[in-house]
Amino acid sequence: MVKPFVPELVYIEPRALEYPLGRKLKKKFTDMGIEIRETTSHNQIRNFPGENHFQRYRLAKSTLVVGVRKTLHFDTSKPSAEYAIPLATGCMGLCHYCYLQTTMGSKPYIRTYVNVDEIFDAAEKYMKERAPEPTRFEASCTSDIVGIDHLTHTLKRTIEYIGASNLGQLRFVTKFAHVDHLLDAKHNGRTRFRFSVNADYVIKFFEPGTSRLNERIEAARKVAEAGYPLGFIVAPIYLHEGWKNGYREMFEKLEAELPDYAKKDLTFEFIQHRFTKPAKKVILQNYPMTKLELDEEKRKWKWGRYGIGKYVYKDEEQVEIRETLSGYLKRFFPEAKLEYFT
Ligand code: SF4
User: Fold this and answer.
1) Which of 122, 252, 281, 306 is the 20 to 30 Å CA partner of 213?
2) Is the beta carbon of 236 within 6 A of some atom in ligand 1?
3) In sequence order, what DSSP letters do the residues of 282-337 get, joined into one string?
């Protein structure tokens, strides 16, 4: 069982102490006996100690930087929402395939932002621009926000902020089961709480440092009981020996554990495994022993964002994935909605 994240090292940017949350976190981490260092900017943080790359990488992944979000321009977040709301970046999970390895490059540490009210002001602006259309915000584009929120409660505040809005909707996804503090948040039904789920094989070999499937399902049950709309992202869908059985078992477990009322308003998103050439290089550096299959020859090349091509499964495999998983969905959750397969 993965325990709630506790950073090994904390950096605090001086400007963060101008905000109540920055001061609160400083006191909290001091009381917890965690080493705290000051840094003028997270860009100054370099050279994590360790005998090899993996040790340095692991330490960086359990380092938390308390800082101020300067860019209040929100990225778009298709297909699941209009905008990404930037509450944190980075994650302490050690998933081999994680795309954050490429996007965060040499800065794999976690950053949490304390200027939450300014972030909300920016969100307000985006909502006004789209009014009377609703605006969906995705909170987990650059981190697994639930995994650090028991420390900061930033997500909890965001859930309540969106809950009190007329046009906002919030979504996020997690591989962590530490949801208890979010259960009494006044979400007002405006937040869709999603869990990332997968076949046992994928979780066992590629998702170290995250909650196991049964823990995620248990957390999903609690979240449903707390009245949140619920969703599951099956990602990355990864072909391996016995994959059809593996994914069927996953659906069976979900079906058996969830209360019936949660099955009525349930969404699923299916995302097949993909990688880019730069990602492959970083993955093999961070996880040289990985079993993850990254053979370009076995895949189909597809244009990606920013002109970087990605390798997805071949057409006939994609058809098989889609048919197999859609079949399970119909069988186990006939009332659920499949939002997309990509
Ligand atoms: S939990 Fe999500 S964000 Fe964290 S390492 Fe795994 S895939 Fe990446």
Assistant:
1) 281
2) no
3) HHHHH-TT------GGGSEEE--GGG--EEE--HHHHHHHHHHHHHHHHHH-TT-E
